Amino acid sequence: MANTLIHETRRLQFPLDTLVDALIELEDKQGHWPPKATVVGATIDNSGDKDASVVLSVHRPEGGAVLERRYSLSMIAAAIVNYCLTVRVPMPRKSSKTIQVLADGVVLVLENTVMLQSRHEELSTLAAGTVPPVGGAPAASPAAGEASLEEAVPEAAAPETEQPEVPPPPEEKPPDAA
Fold first, then answer.
1. For residue 78, what is the enclosing H or E element?
2. Phi and psi dihedrals of 86, rounded to 5?
3. Cα separation, 44 vs 54, whole angstroms
């Protein structure tokens, strides 16, 4: 038997505010996020002379200063994967993962190929519809892209059971008019 393939491509788009949450989640999990710190600004730096990064302006209440934290694409990717696992967004482990930087966010692209055993032999180059059906006359076929109900649900899938014949109810006679 031949094998058949299914190709899947998914795009998980993270707007800047969700990306900030993902970065804070990872930093907090690693113990690197300052306690009681707040993000007062965020931007995506995608200048052409270096790799893209996300810059957070973080206010630390104990000193009152606002510091900038810059995150590389590898840190952004780690934060996104961690965030997806935390909030239970399904991601196939074996899928290839790439990041696309947008003006207002980041996209994680997941690509996956699954190989399954085919239920048919390898297909030939003979075009469908060029072979006359067995028994002579061509069968009526539904419009392109449609399937008839008989094709979609074969009779063998829903066997009929015999029902006992029930006699009809006796006829009622109208009351005599007096």
1. helix 73-86
2. -65, -45
3. 5
Q: Give residue-wise pLDDT tens across range 95-142.
A: 999 999 998 999 999 999 888 888 777 777 777 778 777 776 555 555
Count of positions (residues) in the chain: 178
Largest CA distance in the chain: 108
Which parts of 2-160 fold into alpha helices (H)?
Answer: 16-30, 73-86, 149-152
Buried b (16+ CB within 10 A) or exposed e, 53-76: bbebebbeeeeeeeeebebeeebb
The whole-number pLDDT of residue 9 equals 93
CA-nearest of 28, 62, 26, 55 to 39 is 55
Helix axes 16-30, 73-86, angle to 10 degrees: 90
The gap between the terminal CA atoms of the chain, to the nearest Å, is 84
Ranges assigned E (strand) in the chain: 3-15, 38-45, 53-59, 66-72, 96-101, 105-117
Kindly state the tokens that stand for 103.
């003006």
What b/e string do you get for 102-128 counting C-beta neighbours within 10 Å, with b at 16 or more? eeebbebebebeeeeeeeeeeeeeeee
Is pTM beyond 0.85 here?
no
